[in-house]
């Protein structure tokens, strides 16, 4: 029988509801972005985010059913992002999902937001296991090993800033609007790599990342130039910054793929929309002809509920259920691989 999962995502600044068929097909996807409300603050204001989520969530649930041409009776389960994210924002999605699940006697399936990002690969091609994912977003930079379906182990993580966070902070210093990843990506393609910037932990024999040194180097360069009355070429600086980020991400991924041969390699998360990163990884994958490269589609790389539906379908099939005491967990994370 066909499974229809209605999924809710509200961990940050997108309210999103989707209906996903058998974990692989998007039947409907309704997203309300709040970016404009947060832009003038240069980042997400949690209280403002929660208020927008409350206003939108039931409207989007109705719209998702309508777009799909389905009713609650047709649904198999309700999936929801339990964490990580902003607690007040997560609570809105969790409460909506719990209420609908209770009212319509449907199973409730909690999902880790990061599993959602990775599961969006299933909309491109079924993930074959073992698989490895480079999960790069505004809050996370992780290499996640999946030895089999519904098995997520972190083998590398950032020790400080996430990749997307460093884009946003550099962008803010350049006077770009939030979030700045896409803008810097565009600038990077216009300029030349003329600034010498650090690549932290590049030659270490492990899979962890560090981006705060790079971010500080870029910001210091701008401040020092300003004090000396010198002009910085922001386009070239964007090119050099992006080259350093991609160099680190590709080098670490290559090391992980060499050590853990897998059938599928996925790049997921908001930063997976980065053109330079996709190109760099595509070139690198020539060294791994036995591994299928599945970048998450650009329009599904950022936060959306379809990816949560895909992850919820996997979790549902593996028997994961939440009860009526399910609570948002802002610090929810995958397990770490023990050496
Ligand atoms: O996954 P996401 O939508 O939200 C989180 O779960 O964090 O990721 C948002 C992040 C932001 O930091 C944004 O600047 C970054 O993804 N981003 C990009 C690009 N598009 C979005 N970073 C680099 N290049 C891009 N093209
Ligand atoms: Zn995300």
Write the layout of secondary structure elements.
Elements: E1 4-9, E2 14-21, E3 25-33, H1 35-39, H2 46-68, E4 77-83, H3 87-103, E5 108-112, H4 113-119, E6 131-136, E7 141-146, E8 153-157, H5 163-173, H6 181-188, H7 212-228, H8 234-259, E9 264-268, H9 275-284, E10 292-295, H10 305-317, E11 335-336
Parallel strand pairs: 1-4, 4-5, 6-9, 8-11, 9-10
Antiparallel strand pairs: 1-2, 2-3, 6-7, 7-8
Helix pairs in contact: 2-3, 4-10, 5-7, 6-8, 8-9
Q: Concise description?
A:
This protein has 339 residues and is of the alpha/beta class.
Structure notes:
By secondary structure, the protein is of the alpha/beta class. The chain folds into two domains: 4-119 and 301-336, ATPase, nucleotide binding domain (Nucleotidyltransferase, domain 5), CATH 3.30.420.40; 127-295, ATPase, nucleotide binding domain (Nucleotidyltransferase, domain 5, 2-Layer Sandwich), CATH 3.30.420.40. Helix content is 40%, strand content 19%. It has a six-stranded mixed beta sheet. A five-stranded mixed beta sheet has the order 3-2-1-4-5, sandwiched between helices. Helix 8 (234-259) runs parallel beside helix 9 (275-284). The chain is globular. The protein starts with a strand and ends with a strand. Bound molecules: 5'-O-[(R)-(carboxyoxy)(hydroxy)phosphoryl]adenosine and zinc ion.
